Amino acid sequence: MHSFTALVFGLVATATASAIPTPQAPTVFADLTFSLTNDILGTNAAATLPGNGLDIPLEDLFFGTAVAPNNQIYATSIQFVTLPPNVFSACVFAIDGRVVVINDKKTFGDIDGNPYAAIPQRLNGITINCQTDGIIV
Question: Does the record's keyword annotation contain Signal (predicted)?
Answer without folding.
Answer: yes
